[in-house]
UniProtKB/TrEMBL annotation:
Domain of life: Eukaryota
Region (Disordered): 136-179
UniProt organism field: Caenorhabditis remanei (Caenorhabditis vulgaris)
Lineage, highest ranks first: Eukaryota, Metazoa, Ecdysozoa, Nematoda, Chromadorea
One of the protein's GO biological processes: protein homooligomerization
InterPro entries per UniProt: BTB/POZ_dom (IPR000210), SHKBP1/KCTD3 (IPR047876), SKP1/BTB/POZ_sf (IPR011333), T1-type_BTB (IPR003131), WD40/YVTN_repeat-like_dom_sf (IPR015943), WD40_repeat_dom_sf (IPR036322)
BTB domain: residues covered: 16-87
Keywords: Phosphoprotein, Repeat, WD repeat
One Pfam family recorded for the sequence: BTB_2
Name of the protein described by the UniProt record: BTB domain-containing protein
């Protein structure tokens, strides 16, 4: 049993004072019992009363294993009842105050933190969708009686197919892949069991968000909600699904606006490899279109126009056409990525081929039970095509659309291919090749001003300026390298479909400025929004309800009021079921104003960027923890911000893994 603190130089009678010697982190402090114990129910009252075991050094002083520099400020407060930060961060001092249980000091430091923070969010916060009520009723299990299920005899074979991808070159820099693989193997079983538990204990956790024009679809574990954006940028709940049969794995939405009403198709894929499709109008009237299956795992679900498309990387494509109401599933090559442009669906395959499906011609091939799939291009080296970005130039009076396609491969190569409208029917030609990544390219983006690629080495980004003449890419040889930076994220080893919906980007329309969204850890309360072209920080987003951000989506809302501009919004789903809406257009405007650049131009003003970099260097140089290669810092979280986010969320070595993207990632 612990004994009360005693010393030969004082009396132990009630109410008496005596000297207490403390060894804090190797430094000796001498103070009185009354000084340490005037705050009731603290660490010190428990220690001096004997309710807490103590350890003494060779001199008999009580040993406390804390930082002596911070304890000096704590002890000074106990002596004078005045707070002197002494150059310390408020958060650091508050952390120690919480450890010692000093309630009055905690309240003062909390007020200091709230001087610059508010529960109403920053200037970029522009609304919130409240958490829905849990559905009471359940969807009927229609699998056994649905006539829309495929009766193909090769269902089991399809599920057991592998993607056929060749073995990718392993990146061995600093043994990063080996470290990641070790951590993932060690924690995979724990993560899977935790994921299954969270599905039941966190039924309102937002897992996926998708948007199209004026429709927002939010997915939870066992139900989905559909919202309509009104003229005044408020959000009306149109439909909440009953409790689904199994776990929701994918969602998609397509909205068509007529003169009087908007109509939308909403597709939901389930863990049992089925897809439910609903038609919902602006009045909330719902019509179920059917329940479908490809007899294979569903890896992507989306719309091309009004046609619903489902892909399986094992090599299956399923398409539902709204005009004919037909569902068609067909085997193709194992699929590693895809992109859409107009009415075209482009598939990147594991064997290095790039296949094309013209959705306008889709109904013409339904009678012979076959999709019109044609090979558009084949990688010269036969490498797996791991990412795609298709760009259609505007039509002119002289010619039609140029087709420009950027694609990345499993060997880290980024290729740019072109097809002139006069050469329709012929394969595109290779225009440019960049052999600049040491890991598989998981995302590429080709827009009006930039080519951006992201590889699997912890989301390493490279970008180039793209020069155009009369809207078409310039045929002069060579382009200018622009930036190289990382978008580090720490992902859990489970919920692979959720990762697909919450990757860093790039996000945004191809004719506008694209952004990256960096979430350092799962369930973080802070996001870093950065320019996709240069990596510079646009703003940070902090959850206004102190609820973890579990999902996010960037969407450009078309202004419905007369004279309003197209605005880019960030939708953040939270662990409590709400969805917070942030105005990235205002953030971009203020970013350009601060940097002195023209918002109409997507290139960053070089002098402003240089001044910003010098400012960052001077700020980091003043920090004792700034042991960092400053040339690699480009606007992401500073080392101190990274440590703060990890510490604030109690992340330890046994929970997250340093996630490298899969070699053949779906977009």
């Amino acid at each position: 049993m612990a004994q009360p603190c005693s010393s030969t130089s004082f009396s132990n009678e009630p109410g008496s004072d005596y000297i207490v010697n403390l060894n804090v982190g190797g430094r000796i402090f001498a103070t009185s019992c009354n000084t340490l114990s005037w705050i009731p129910d603290s660490f010190f009252t428990s220690l001096l009363s004997g309710r807490m075991n103590s350890v003494r050094d060779v001199s008999g002083a009580i040993f406390i294993d804390r930082d002596p520099d911070v304890f000096r400020v704590i002890l000074n407060y106990l002596r004078t009842k005045q707070v002197d930060l002494g150059g310390l961060k408020v958060s650091t001092l508050k952390h120690e105050a919480l450890f010692f249980g000093l309630t009055p000091l905690i309240r003062r430091l909390t007020l200091c933190e709230e001087l610059s923070s508010t529960s109403c969010g920053s200037v970029y916060f522009c609304g919130m969708i409240p958490p829905p009520d849990m559905p009471v009723e359940a969807l009927p299990n229609e699998k056994s009686r649905s006539p829309m299920y495929s009766n193909s005899s090769d269902s089991n074979d399809s599920k057991n197919k592998t993607n056929g991808s060749p073995r990718h070159r392993v990146h061995s820099k600093k043994q990063s892949s080996d470290m990641s693989r070790y951590i993932k193997n060690e924690l995979s079983e724990l993560a899977k069991s935790k994921s299954l538990l969270d599905r039941d204990t966190e039924p309102l956790k937002v897992r996926m968000i998708r948007a199209h024009i004026c429709s927002i679809v939010v997915a939870y574990s066992y139900f989905v909600c559909v919202y309509r954006v009104t003229e005044w940028n408020t959000y009306v709940l149109l439909w909440k699904s009953p409790r689904t049969r199994t776990y929701v794995t994918h969602i998609a939405v397509n909205t068509k606006i007529s003169a009087t009403v908007a109509e939308r198709f909403v597709a939901v894929a389930f863990q049992d490899d089925t897809i439910g499709l609903w038609h919902i109008d602006d009045e909330g009237k719902t019509e179920k279109k059917g329940l479908f299956s490809m007899n294979a795992s569903i890896d992507n679900l989306f719309f091309v126009g009004t046609q619903m498309v489902a892909l399986s990387k094992s090599g299956k494509v399923g398409i539902w056409h709204s005009a004919t109401q037909n569902w068609q599933a067909q085997d193709v090559q194992p699929i590693s990525c895809y992109d859409t442009a107009g009415s075209s669906l482009i598939l990147g395959c594991a064997n290095g081929s790039m296949n094309h499906i013209d959705m306008q011609k889709f109904p013409l091939r339904m009678k012979d039970n076959d999709l019109l799939v044609t090979e558009l291009f084949r990688d010269p080296n036969g490498d797996t095509i791991t990412s795609l970005s298709v760009f259609l130039t505007p039509k002119t009076s002289a010619c039609g659309n140029w087709i420009e396609i950027a694609y990345g491969t499993s060997n880290g190569v980024v290729n740019l291919i072109l097809q002139h409208p006069e050469t329709a029917g012929h394969q595109p030609v290779l225009f440019q090749s960049y052999n600049i990544h040491n890991s598989p390219v998981v995302r590429v983006s080709l827009n009006t001003a930039h080519l951006i690629s992201v590889c699997s080495e912890y989301n390493h980004v490279r970008s180039w300026n793209v020069t155009r003449f009369r809207g078409m890419i310039n045929t002069q040889p060579g382009t200018v390298p622009l930036a190289s930076f990382k978008v580090l994220t720490l992902d859990s080893t489970d919920e692979t479909t959720d990762k697909q919906y919450n990757h860093p980007g790039p996000y945004g329309d191809q004719d506008s400025e694209q952004v990256l969204v960096q979430r350092l850890i799962p369930n973080a309360q802070k996001l870093f929004v950065r320019l996709a072209s240069t990596g510079e920080r646009i703003c940070t987003v902090d959850s206004v309800e102190d609820s973890p951000i579990t999902a996010f989506c960037v969407h450009e809302l078309d202004g419905q009021k007369l004279g309003s501009r197209l605005r880019k919004h960030l939708f953040c789903g939270n662990g409590n079921g709400s969805v917070q809406v942030w105005d990235l257009t205002s953030a971009l405007d203020q970013f350009h104003l601060k940097n002195g650049s023209n918002p109409g131009h997507q290139q960053v003003n070089p002098p402003a960027a240089a001044n910003h970099a010098e400012l960052i260097k001077s700020q980091l140089a003043q920090s004792p923890r700034s042991l960092i290669n400053l040339s690699n810092y480009s606007g992401g979280p500073t080392p101190q911000e990274l440590l703060d986010v990890i510490d604030d969320n109690d992340i330890c070595c046994s929970t997250p893994s340093l996630s490298r993207c899969p070699s053949a990632a779906f977009q």
